[in-house]
Structure formats: structure tokens, C-alpha cells
From TrEMBL:
It comes from Chitinophaga rupis. Residues 17-131 form the Response regulatory domain. It comes from the Bacteria. This is Response regulator receiver domain-containing protein. Keywords: Phosphoprotein. InterPro entries: Bact_response_regulator, CheY-like_superfamily, Sig_transdc_resp-reg_receiver. GO terms for biological process: phosphorelay signal transduction system. The modification 4-aspartylphosphate is found at D66. CDD domains: REC (cd00156). PANTHER family: CHEY SUBFAMILY, STRESS RESPONSE REGULATOR PROTEIN 1.
Amino acid sequence: MSLVSDLVSTETMKGSFVLIIDDEPDICRLLQMSLVRLGYDVKYVHELRAGLQCIQSEQPDILFLDIHLPDGSGLEAISVFKNKYPALKVITISAYDNGMEKQTALSAGASHFLAKPFSVKNVDELMKDVKS
């Protein structure tokens, strides 16, 4: 990539709206802090139901979706979200970093998989990949 395409790509994503659906407040705050620093508008919720309402009303560009939530399976929700909002980039996050869940998430339409625990550096690298 050239410097010009890097700048255009960065400008395109700046101000993009990111929704995080995760039941762990610390994970939500870490992601929010990392993404805001990169120029994203970020909101988080802790349940699938609240996430679906937010997606319908605010239509985020990027969704960080935990696989295991108190009110349902993030894995099952991926295809629902992608069918209704095909342009939505879904990044699954999970403490269960086994190959099977990762493959299931990617097959269902997730664009990336982020394993917990993760660092700010992991998020930075992931978002560079998401933008390309």
C-alpha cells in the first residue's frame, strides 16, 4: 500500500461507528479506549438483545461480538446480523480460542476473530487489517 492509499483508507474509517457486544465490562472498556484512540466512535452493550436494538437504530460499521453471552450465542447471531446488514464487519471475541469456534465464526460471516485476553497492540493490528 502506498502512503496515499493509507491516508485515504484511514480517513474512510475515521469516525466509523463501532458497537461492542460483550458481557465483561473490563473488556468493553479496554476495547472502547483502544478504538477511541484510533478515531472510532464506540458504544458497548452487554446483551444480544440490546445489541440488536442498537444495530437496528444506529447501524454500526463494525461489530465486536462475544461468542458467549448471557442471553444467547454470538455464534448463532453472526449469520442473523450479516443477513440483515451485509456490509457490517463482524469481529468475534472469545476466551475460547479453539480452532473449531474460530472456524465456525468465520464460516458464519465474521471477518476476524480476536482471542481473549488481548492487548491494545492486538486491537491496533486487527483494526489495520479490518481497514484493508
